[in-house]
Write a structure and sequence with these properties.
alpha+beta, six-stranded antiparallel beta sheet, 28 helices, 17% strand, EC 2.7.1.107, ATP-dependent diacylglycerol kinase activity, zinc, ANK repeat, repeat
Length: 930
């Protein structure tokens, strides 16, 4: 494989990585194609004439089934801008329920060949005799698979924005509106002022967070009784090449983000993501080991209630799949039919057994075996003796020479050959002399000796060893997977080969517990995983019951829909002082919370209904004024707007615990507290500051117009900086200090709220008004906009980077957050300050929350002023100082803005910053004395 294979060079020379599975990291792009190499003939490159390069290997997207040359992919994405179907929503943690519609729209794809009939006219699509028709004959939706003729009579522009039904499998497809991408780590806006963290706890938290990888996505389902979403886990290595092909087929029929490749970290990530989805079902595609892997992870995650698990058998064996009615292997059955069967399947319970192994200290022959079994949980069967010996030799031979075991027929021939050898040698004819068996306290060792068994099998399911049935039903005792009993069967070397011909073993017992004592190293196997175990004492007992999906047999009536599981949560109250002090630490907040009581309701209950239920609870701890706290969406707690409680479900904001926050009467929460008066007060203060701004603008000259002209005229920003430095400095010095009282400050006290929703004291009132007044002075179309429901966006950063003021203004008016940050924690103000984009800086200072001026990045811990000083951006520094940027804050290396200017060899800028620093210190001292 060449170095460039699997990559495409974009328009700017950057290489695009080809992905075959969705990206779950912060770098995920919505609408990213899932490319896999293809050699199929007949599919033309989607780019089409004349732009197609006709060069390089061809790739096919599994999610929308378009084909493109490797060198044509950049053209497809950069020029044609044809993306794949959107698989998630890129909205803020506060906004995922706020959009008016969460409906899915069609994803139309041009097709040059199409099967089936037109949805509009009912006629078949014209079949082309040529292998590569250049004419587009149809438009097909990659979600619902609906197709129309490519002509006005059948398909018109009104269909482009139509709502998509998600097709025939809508009851099991996960809508993209359920999957929400979280903002980048650190970009979450707190509704509080910065509170000092304890150094010790901060270090401990950093260490704890390093161990746990932060989530980039969260699932926010809409509970519906007739929707039973299925997440699919596939082992591509199972069944030869079957697993890889099935992965692509499922990505076509379902949302690609509900299909997981088990070789990329196992099932834990997918199960954790979807654990709160009601009526969840799991489809494990692979062998019995794959199913056992999924069930063991479900045990670790303590799912309640556990999802039902279905099986699509790949490879050989697959006894569990046979017992559940799914057959012994996948034989190219249409995936659409399999998905329909999964949707219509019924649930059954499967007993699961625990094996506890202890060393037999009384045994004389220690041998060279292992101390523990390969698996501690039995889903299918547990055996010892000749059958485990054959399985162990097969595994050892396959590990030594994997190339000899690449076909099912050859594997069966090996088993037959080894079985024939043991039939002659009868190596384990004395197994009963080495084993002591007790079932439910009854000693059954004499029975083993009477029948001279060569193997003892504990059967949990009817099928064993690739479809045989060792338990003899003629004994009058039927097997069941959910009766809490396990069947014990004895096998001889004569009975083993007869099992393939419909024979049976010797029925020993049915029991609830078993105790096996071995005095010699004996081969054993658990669900096909074999090893030699040293002399041990083994205890077998019931562990739990797993919910499985069994194929519905013909003629059996469909069971009525089961009622949705109710949710039980503990309601806890958080006080405002605790919230202000520990809002950054989930664990500390949970510990500080006071219990109020327990609540039981359905998963479809919204927060308005839950509020009424809490109001009826008889508890003295319920505060008079409170709001809900979302404890499970973001990396920290945040408040839910009371006006939007009807949009949120209980499962959106709570897991086992539901937190409510006791609000202070005079606190307005910009994250959406329950009070509305604070927002009104904030608007009044904005209007007041606007009036003050108009009065002050007659006295103080704004540098915005002159500087904008000079910015466009000067090719060298640094040169222009030096020429205009004196003028700008004088203009900035004419402005009042950020903490100085306003000339027209009202004599009476009016409470003013900061953009963080925290009331500012009387001494800080004038300072806050002054800060807002200075923001208006920059004169770049100040937009009066509430920061309550802003959405984080990469486009804000891009507009700042490209000096696109019009685009930035449009994004702000659409409600996107001016506090959006990039991967290293830099805001748009950092980016524009570094690039000397002054118009962008002025607009941000006038319209973004005041907190933006002192937000440090996460890489160097530098504010926008420090970034500008390090780059010698004199005009930008003057603008930031005038806006109230802190001059004394230090970065991670302990450097202030003045010291960074000195390092940049700009002594004049350093002198200016030093003088401003002294001025602010003197002003603060005067205020303190007063």
């Amino acid at each position: 494989m060449g170095d460039d294979e699997g990559r495409a060079v974009g328009a700017e020379g950057a290489q695009r990585e080809f992905r075959a599975t969705p990206d779950w990291a912060e770098s995920a792009i919505n609408g990213e194609h899932l490319w896999s190499p293809t050699t199929q003939s007949g599919d033309m490159c989607y780019v089409g004439e004349p732009e197609c390069t006709k060069h390089g290997p061809r790739y096919k997207c599994a999610a929308c089934k378009i084909v493109a040359h490797q060198s044509c992919v950049p053209i497809l994405l950069d020029r044609l801008r044809f993306t794949c179907k959107a698989t998630f929503r890129d909205v803020g943690v506060r906004a995922y329920r706020e959009q008016a519609s969460t409906a899915v729209t069609h994803h139309w794809v041009h097709r040059r060949s199409q099967k089936g009939k037109c949805r509009q006219c009912g006629k078949s699509f014209q079949s082309k005799l040529s292998f590569s028709s250049k004419e587009i004959v149809a438009l097909s939706c990659s979600w619902c698979k609906t197709s129309y003729h490519n002509k006005e009579a059948c398909f018109n522009l009104t269909r482009i924005g139509e709502e998509c039904t998600l097709g025939s499998h809508k009851s099991i497809v996960v809508p993209p509106s359920w999957i929400v991408k979280l903002p980048r780590r650190g970009s979450f806006k707190s509704s509080l002022r910065k509170s000092p963290k304890k150094k010790g706890s901060s270090k401990k938290k950093t260490k704890d967070k390093a161990e746990k990888e932060p989530r980039a996505f969260v699932i926010k389902p809409i509970p519906t009784a007739n929707v039973k979403p299925v997440i699919v886990f596939i082992n591509p290595k199972s069944g030869g090449n079957q697993g890889t092909k099935l992965l692509q087929k499922f990505q076509w029929h379902l949302n690609p983000r509900q299909v997981f490749d088990l070789t990329q970290g196992g099932p834990k990530m997918g199960l954790e993501l979807f654990r709160k989805v009601p009526n969840l079902r799991v489809l494990a595609c692979g062998g019995d080991g794959t199913v056992g892997w999924v069930l063991s992870v479900l045990d670790q995650l303590a799912f309640h209630p556990p999802p039902a698990v279905g099986v699509l058998p790949l490879g050989t064996g697959n006894d569990l799949a046979r017992a559940l009615g799914w057959g012994g292997g996948y034989t190219d059955e249409p995936i659409s039919k399999i998905l329909s069967n999964i949707g219509n399947s019924e649930t059954v319970l499967l007993d699961r057994w625990q094996l506890k192994v202890e060393k037999n200290v009384d045994a004389k022959d220690k041998g060279d075996g292992k101390e523990q079994l390969p698996l501690s949980v039995v889903n299918n069967y547990f055996s010892m003796g000749v059958d485990a010996h054959i399985a162990l030799e097969f595994h050892e031979a396959r590990e030594a020479h994997p190339e000899r075991f690449n076909s099912r027929l050859r594997n069966k021939m090996f088993y037959g050959q080894m079985g024939g050898k043991d039939l002659v040698r009868r190596k384990w004819k004395g197994l009963a002399e080495l084993v002591t068996l007790e079932c439910d306290g009854k000693d059954l060792t004499p029975k083993l000796k009477d029948h001279r068994v060569h193997a003892v099998v504990f059967l949990n399911i009817p099928s064993y060893g690739g479809g045989t049935h060792p338990w003899n039903r003629a004994s009058g005792i039927e097997q069941a997977t959910d009766d809490g009993l396990i069947e014990v069967v004895g096998l001889t070397t004569y009975q083993l080969p007869l099992l393939q011909a419909g024979g049976h073993g010797t029925c020993i017992a049915q029991c609830r517990t078993a105790r096996i004592v071995t005095s010699k190293t004996i081969p054993m196997q658990v669900d096909g995983e074999a090893c030699k175990l040293e002399p041990s004492v083994i205890t077998l007992s019931l562990l739990n019951q797993a919910t499985m999906l069994a194929k519905r047999r013909g003629g059996r009536p469909q069971a009525q829909e089961a009622a949705q599981e109710s949710l039980k949560v503990t309601v806890l109250k958080i006080s405002m002082p605790d919230y202000e002090q520990h809002h950054y630490d989930k664990e500390l907040l949970a510990q500080a919370a006071q219990p109020i009581g327990e609540l039981e309701t359905g998963p479809a209950s919204d927060l308005e209904q839950v509020r009424a239920m809490i109001g009826k609870m008889e508890s003295p701890n319920i505060p008079p004024d409170w709001c809900f706290v979302d404890s499970c969406t973001a990396e920290r707690f945040f408040r839910v707007d009371r006006a939007q409680e009807h949009l949120h479900f209980l499962m959106d904001v709570a897991a086992e615990q539901l937190f409510i926050l006791e609000e202070v009467a005079d606190v307005a929460d910009t994250s959406g507290g329950s009070g509305g008066s604070g927002a009104a007060t904030k608007d009044v203060s904005r209007e007041t500051s606007q009036e003050t701004s108009q009065e002050m603008s007659q006295e103080v000259l704004s540098p915005s117009d002159d500087q904008s002209t000079s910015d466009r005229a000067s090719p060298d920003p640094l040169t222009e900086d030096k020429e205009s430095f004196t003028t700008v400095s004088a203009s900035a010095a004419a402005m009042p200090a950020p903490h100085a009282p306003l000339p027209h400050a009202p004599s009476t006290y009016t409470p003013v709220y900061s953009t963080d929703g925290v009331p500012i004291s009387n001494t800080d009132n004038a300072a806050a008004g002054s800060s807002r007044t200075q923001q208006k002075l920059f004169g770049l179309n100040y937009v009066k906009y509430s920061h309550l429901l802003e959405k984080s966006s990469e486009d804000v950063l891009r507009a700042s980077r490209e000096n696109d003021l019009r685009r930035l203004r449009d994004l702000h008016q659409q409600g996107y957050s001016m506090l959006s940050i990039d991967a290293v924690g830099q805001t748009a103000l950092h980016i524009s300050a570094r690039a000397d984009h002054r118009d962008i800086v002025k607009y941000l200072l006038a319209n973004a929350p005041p907190a933006i001026v002192d937000i440090p990045d996460t890489e160097r811990g530098q504010t926008a002023l420090q970034v500008a000083a390090a780059g010698g951006r004199r005009s930008v520094c003057c603008l930031l100082v005038a806006a109230g940027a802190s001059l004394v804050v230090r970065d991670r290396q302990g450097r202030t803005a003045k010291q960074l200017a000195l390092q940049a060899n700009d002594s004049e800028l350093a002198h200016y910053l030093e003088s401003q620093e002294r001025f602010h210190l003197v002003t603060e001292d005067v205020e303190t004395i007063v």
